[in-house]
Design goal:
The chain is α/β, with parallel strands linked by helices and about 500 residues long. Helices cover about 35% and strands about 25% of the residues. The chain folds into two domains: about 230 residues, Rossmann fold (3-Layer(aba) Sandwich), CATH 3.40.50; about 170 residues, 3-Layer(aba) Sandwich (Rossmann fold). The chain has 18 helices and 22 strands. The chain starts with 10 loop residues before the first strand and ends in a 7-residue tail after the last helix.
Amino acid sequence: MSSTATAAHEVAVAVSGIGKSFPGVVANRDITFEIERGTIHALVGENGAGKSTLMKILYGVQRPDEGTIEINGETVSLHSPSDAIARGVGMVFQHFQLADNFTVLENVVLGAEKLHGIGDAARSEVLRISEEYGFGLDPDELVEELGVGERQRVEILKVLYRGAKIIILDEPTAVLVPQEVDALFANLRGLKAEGHTLIFISHKLDEVRAIADDITVIRRGTTVASVKPADVSSRDLAELMVGSELPSPSTEESTVTDRVKLTLDGITVRDRSGRAVLSDIGFQIHAGEILGIAGVEGNGQTELVDTVVGLLRPAEGSIRLGEEDITGWSTKKRRAAGIGVIPEDRHRHGLLLDAPLWENRILGHQTRPPSVKGPWIDRSGARQDTDRIVSTYDVRTPSIDTTARALSGGNQQKFIVGREMSGEPVLLIGAHPTRGVDVGAQAAIWDHMRAARREGLAVLLISADLDELIGLSDTIRVLLRGKIVGSFDPQTVTPQELGSAMTGAGGAA
């Protein structure tokens, strides 16, 4: 990569020698690259490679220990996101930062009232941006009524409203179906055509190659390559990221037995207003089987998991674990009976972020060894088993006394998987088990799930990654508006067919 831009191209962002350290961890080390104005520049790397720290530095959330940042040819010092916004830098976070009970207009204007007020001028500007970039958003619609793809466009509209010409997108396709990804990419290409510069962070390497003009690879805190998409395959990128070629998900030979481990029969769940969020759900999962659930977020997946775990009680129907009717059982009793859970939000429901790893080993398993001995917590047993999990599941941490917060997302997820597998479950609920993790951690989690499946584990897999669902599942059911609307054979279905069923545009196989 040239250290200076050619006369024909202008540099929007240049970082040189960026370094950032935290106690015991070097997050960034001599990161150097340039981004041309009016291009889509992808940034890829493993969890813990330093991408998030670098983006926080570019958005003013953190300050580098060393190195320089240039924006539009001017060396800048960013002390806060306000400084970044003033320089025309905006960021769209992976987890949407929207108020569901506010309208599109209210969400966009919130915190930026000084720009165009809160009345007609603001409405006109929101409409102008929406129409100019083909977003098709109604300023008066409540965000809670929008689909995931539309919410993504609201987030992009927010940064455009604030005048951003350089936009950082963190995992923007993580929860989108293929058709929504296509729509997003059309929007991004429109922004690029208007002269915007886009920094695209993703673990989906095929998508990176489809949308990016240039790709920078970060490994262990430093830049290791800058490549053109046409010059590399997804496998090549994976090798640059982690140093080795990685497997794809595969169901291998069927291990499904005739032993039923979970039965849902006519399950209907209602919210506080009496509206059915799950309607007449029925299926079985056998030992050695992975049943995949596909669906756009917000169509009942969370309620399905909470109902099986015991956090929600069905208004109608029954649940059996093996031969036992567990419909009235508490969550604690269900966990003790062998239900393991990889939660969809590891920070809110899977970890005590400020507790050390060995204490997190006990979380959810505080009623049986090795976490307890008699009526008491077994500190020694928990520590020894945490050491085993860290080794077996390749959780990269300085110590089991390190807090969960200090680990990268991929290592947090591998730890949770290891903990839930260690409870010798008869049923594992995996809610988005590889969301937001890099290709290395993803492959490791797939391997552990396949191995457990071969040993007779029954798995309920909920995922927004359609390749993951197709690659790991024995059967796929589609959940739409709280109802199962299709059953598909992973051996024959395509991601496009699943996407159509998930959005109501297609039927069951």
